[in-house]
């Protein structure tokens, strides 16, 4: 019973904006890609998410400081590119550790 109480206490410490499957997938993907990050369309295709779902989750993660958006120019086109921040990596690692305990 003590282990369950500890898991519950730790769960309350998580930012509720992180614990969602789309947000975890976005952060894990960006972590895997490193500093280069990914363009919106790459994330959409790779994660197979609809525009509304992807956009709202990217914005929520950006507001928490877990990812950053930057504009990049590719040829004549400007597009948004996203990369995970150090804070985002820490949050993702904390979530992984917590899930492993379960």
Please, could you describe this protein's structure?
The protein has 102 residues and is of the alpha+beta class. It has one domain: Winged helix-like DNA-binding domain superfamily/Winged helix DNA-binding domain (Arc Repressor Mutant, subunit A), CATH 1.10.10. It has five helices and three strands. It has helices at 2-13, 21-33, 40-47, 51-64, 86-101; strands at residues 38-39, 67-74, 77-84. It has a three-stranded antiparallel sheet. The mean pLDDT is 85.
Topology:
Elements: H1 2-13, H2 21-33, E1 38-39, H3 40-47, H4 51-64, E2 67-74, E3 77-84, H5 86-101
Q: How is this structure best summarized?
A:
By secondary structure, the chain is α+β, with helices and mostly antiparallel strands.
Calculate the mean pLDDT score and round it. Answer: 85
Rg over CA atoms, rounded to whole Å, is 15 Å
Give the quaternary arrangement of the chains: single chain
The total count of helices amounts to 5
- How far do the termini sit from each other? 13 Å
Biggest sheet, strands in spatial order? 1-3-2
CATH architecture: Orthogonal Bundle
> Which homologous superfamily in CATH is the superfamily?
Winged helix-like DNA-binding domain superfamily/Winged helix DNA-binding domain
CATH topology: Arc Repressor Mutant, subunit A
How much of the sequence lies in strands comes to: 15-25%
Helix and strand content put the structural class at alpha+beta
> How do the helices and strands follow one another from N- to C-terminus?
HHEHHEEH
Work out the helicity level.
Answer: 55-70%
Low-confidence stretches: none
The tally of structural domains comes to: 1
* β-strand number: 3
| Biggest sheet details | 3 strands, antiparallel
General form:
elongated
CATH class: Mainly Alpha
